[in-house]
Write a structure and sequence with these properties.
It is a single chain. The radius of gyration is 23 Å and the shape is elongated. Helix 2 runs parallel beside helix 3 and helix 5 packs antiparallel against helix 6. The protein has three domains: 31 residues, no CATH class; 71 residues, Pyruvate kinase, C-terminal domain (Pyruvate Kinase, Chain: A, domain 1); 46 residues. The longest helix has 29 residues. Strand 2, helix 4 and strand 3 form a beta-alpha-beta unit. It is built from seven helices and three strands, in the order H-H-E-H-E-H-E-H-H-H. It is mostly helical. Strands 1-2-3 form a three-stranded parallel sheet, covered by helices on one side. Helix content is 61%, strand content 9%. The mean pLDDT is 88.
């Protein structure tokens, strides 16, 4: 048995145990999908076709298989939610999926569902920094277009 399947079984067994239903773990329900990109996509597409899936959730780093998987789910009429860290693949998900999480929304959703205070705090901190940077940018553009460089001078002092 490939080591990746053993890891997957261990993760599912632990999740069932933590949920208080260890008797629900069935090793035969865990399928090993190929380690290679296109055979894995072909197998996933076959599963979608044979089992007439109702939902397809795709999260992670996708490459050329993104459109294949998204199109297979769309042809089945499955509800599809997708997010990827590979910016080049996002248009394919937008075209074929019902919902697409863009950019760091993928990490924000993970923090939201986990309710982990550290992750939620990190997301909140990043949002505050984004707002501050945007405000400084707008303030800088306005002051510079009025002929003032006070913000530039102030920020130059901070860099020293």
């Amino acid at each position: 048995m490939p080591w990746r399947k053993r890891i997957a079984e261990s993760v599912v067994r632990e999740a069932d145990f933590q949920q208080g239903v260890p008797e629900e773990f069935k090793p035969e329900s865990i399928r090993f999908v190929s380690e290679q990109q296109f055979p894995a996509a072909a197998q996933a597409m076959g599963i979608m076709e044979r089992e007439n899936v109702a939902a397809n959730l795709m999260f992670g780093n996708f490459a050329a298989e993104a459109l294949l998987l998204a199109e297979a789910g769309a042809l089945r009429g499955a509800i599809q939610i997708a997010s990827t860290t590979n910016v080049i693949q996002i248009p394919f998900f937008v075209a074929c999926c019902d919902y697409t999480l863009l950019g760091d929304e993928m990490f924000a959703v993970g923090a939201w569902f986990s309710k982990d205070p550290k992750q939620l705090g990190a997301i909140y901190g990043q949002d505050v920094i984004k707002v501050v940077c945007l405000a400084l940018l707008i303030l800088g553009v306005i002051s510079r277009s009025m002929g003032s460089d006070w913000l530039y001078q102030l920020l130059s002092l901070c860099g020293r």
